Known about the structure:
Blueprint: H1 5-18, E1 22-28, E2 45-49, E3 55-60, E4 64-71, E5 74-81, E6 85-91, E7 95-99
Antiparallel strand pairs: 1-2, 1-6, 3-4, 4-5, 6-7
Amino acid sequence: xxxxxxxxxxxxxxxxxxxxxxxxxxxxxxxxxxxxxxxxxxxxxxxxxxxxxxxxxxxxxxxxxxxxxxxxxxxxxxxxxxxxxxxxxxxxxxxxxxxxxxxxx
Length: 105
């Protein structure tokens, strides 16, 4: 059976977008497989704006999320395995929607 996590992730993501909000991920940047710009990591964490207008080459696969985004004008590739992000949040106001624990298969 296919993993449930990408389907739940997409449901939350689409709901936030359809509600005219901005989706964010709070990511644990200390895990070896996570690829984020380390110069923006604070206390082992990074918050990423993942709105459609902020990212490109967006892929939600069975085991990871990847996309490209600009950081201080430089295009960077981002790779986040599903188990390595902590919270899915939205702005207006910021609200925690889902933690990685609730997305375990």
